[in-house]
UniProtKB/TrEMBL annotation, chains A, B:
It is an enzyme of class 5 (isomerase). InterPro entries: Cyclophilin-like_dom_sf, Cyclophilin-type_PPIase_dom. Residues 1-20 form the signal peptide. Keywords: Isomerase, Signal. It comes from the Bacteria. Its EC number is 5.2.1.8. Residues 81-280 form the PPIase cyclophilin-type domain. One of its GO terms (molecular function) is peptidyl-prolyl cis-trans isomerase activity. This is Peptidylprolyl isomerase. Pfam families: Pro_isomerase.
Length: 338, 338
């Protein structure tokens, strides 16, 4: 919403963190600038075998539409993730379609006929698996505490400042989530808990771009054959009520810009409205797939990035919020430079 | 993400709040069912003069694309709203265009050339006007307290229940906002404050569909000629940094489903990508405009609806969240029945 020319000028200037000579105000890097300055070792490679690559039929102009989904790592949702690997291996989604696009909610895909036979060997997962214990959390937390201290002296968090800005050791936003008692990041993923200690049960959160498993009424938990991606304000009321199995890391716009369905819940009413899925494969079966990496959520740069998202001090802003919700701190993911 | 056939069956059954005979579990109405049962007097009419009706060029199939925006009422942003009325009266947007579509963020429109002369008489608004005092709030709150008590006995909040569900008099979500100390609704709009008493300064929140005013770097606050609508997860870090002047109440899908721009910040790079705005007029200048109304946010039905959004107990859900963020409780707006 900033006007075009001014912003571009401003962004170019900021890339070098200039100190405005006339008033000696501190100039803070923006969140993208912090990410751009993160060290190579702060990025974590995503294994191609943890990607689901979905090629839709080309658009009206013949342009390819590829959607790349990162599958969620252990300990979350691994029963459904295992099913998804089997469905991809069986080429089950080939020839199925996008069947539902509901504005400010989800895009959903799978077999519109609901009659396609599933491959053998899929497991039925329990509702208890909507959340998971994090045994390793306590160690990760100790490590992060140290890194948070270290970053006080690091290049990333100390652009040329005149006045020191106090940051809370644990920003208030962690404990001010309306849907949970605490929110955080774990191995690159946004998570939440209803308890107050590190040993609690945690679950992934329904942020923009997250991918989940369609299901019928409880106790059904879905197989993973019917999937959806979030394309609106985070529907966090679905947390713990439905399995999250991944997130779209590239090509989400091919889903979010589709025409909205006019039937109930945004289902398409006519067959010709449905976009065909030409193929869906695990990443290690795709020859030309670029490598992807995410900014490690236990890195100093991620902590600085999250702080900057919660306290915008770059020049456009006049009043930092002092907090952010977990879905307003999207984990940076990018193609790895060759 | 629920499977199509099951949900439709289920929704049809729920419309009569049946009590399942076999296990006598309580059956709770869903948020849309609560809204559908609200009394006629709980709805507030929206004056046509408070609407900005924007007709885009028809889509590729020749289908009309009308976007209806409700302008925000006093005490919020009235300097910019006044400018918008003048711009509409001057037909200033006619022939301008949608220039930017950034995924999970905003759609922005206005004069792509940035050279079109503005009408005379526009005011320059101060940054102080990003938030406002609510003198009447205290009375409204007392009224709501009474209504909250009344609703215990009302038809809307008491579907046939077997076990009483305890609701907090003030649900925790009001005070668990990561961007503010308190969030609430006022005259149909989501608002937030940084203080802890009713006399504080409040501001509207950047929820999905909200419309704001593009600006250059501070101290510029924008005129209202350059507008944007939120089409992603609520960018609440913009609250108090930019003026909110309304919300899209119909036709948002004509903006949110546009192709994403490929330039920086989602700006379209080629002129032919831009969708033209054929006209933008205040609602009282449109002959065939339907009447709109919103569910009064100080009504008992709205309180029950907000509680249900924060504590989903309808049959699909197994774990109610116990809270919701302010943007996850969208204010119901509909065409008024003739």
């Amino acid at each position: 919403m900033i006007k075009k020319l001014t912003l571009i000028t401003c962004a170019a200037a900021l890339a070098t963190f200039p100190l405005a000579a006339q008033d000696a105000k501190p100039v803070f890097p923006s969140p993208p600038e912090i990410v751009a300055k993160a060290k190579a070792e702060e990025w974590t490679a995503i294994a191609p075998s943890d990607l689901l690559v979905m090629d839709l039929a080309p658009d009206a102009k013949g342009k390819a539409r590829r959607v790349v989904i990162q599958l969620i790592p252990p300990p979350f949702s691994q029963g459904w993730v295992g099913n998804i690997r089997k469905l991809a291996a069986a080429k089950w989604w080939d020839g199925t379609s996008i069947n539902r696009v509901q504005d400010n909610y989800v895009v959903q895909w799978g077999d519109a006929t609901e009659k396609k036979v599933l491959p053998e060997g899929l497991v039925t997962v329990s509702e208890a698996a909507y959340a998971s214990s994090l045994f390793e959390w306590q160690n990760e937390n100790a490590k992060r505490d140290k890194e948070r201290q270290d970053k006080q002296a690091s290049e990333v968090s100390t652009p040329p400042i005149v006045k020191k800005v106090e940051l809370e050791p644990y920003p208030a936003w962690h404990s001010r989530d309306p849907f949970a008692s605490w929110v955080d990041f774990y191995r690159g993923w946004p998570i939440a808990t209803a308890g107050y200690s590190w040993e609690q049960i945690w679950w992934p959160t329904h942020c923009y771009g997250m991918v989940g498993v369609g299901r019928n009424l409880s106790p059904d938990t879905g197989t993973g054959a019917e999937l959806y991606a979030v394309i609106g304000h985070a529907p966090r009321h679905l947390d713990r009520n439905i399995a999250l199995v991944g997130r779209v890391i590239e090509g989400l716009e091919h889903l979010s810009s589709l025409p909205r369905g006019t039937g109930p819940l945004g289902f398409y009413e006519k067959e010709e409205e449905r976009v065909q899925i030409n193929s869906a494969r695990l990443g290690d079966e795709i020859a030309d797939l670029p490598a992807f990496e995410y900014l490690s959520t236990d890195s100093a740069s991620f902590a600085a990035y999250a702080d900057a998202r919660a306290n915008r001090r770059d020049p456009f802003f006049i009043t930092p919020a002092g907090g952010a919700d977990i879905c307003n701190i999207p984990v940076p993911v990018r193609r790895k430079a060759k």
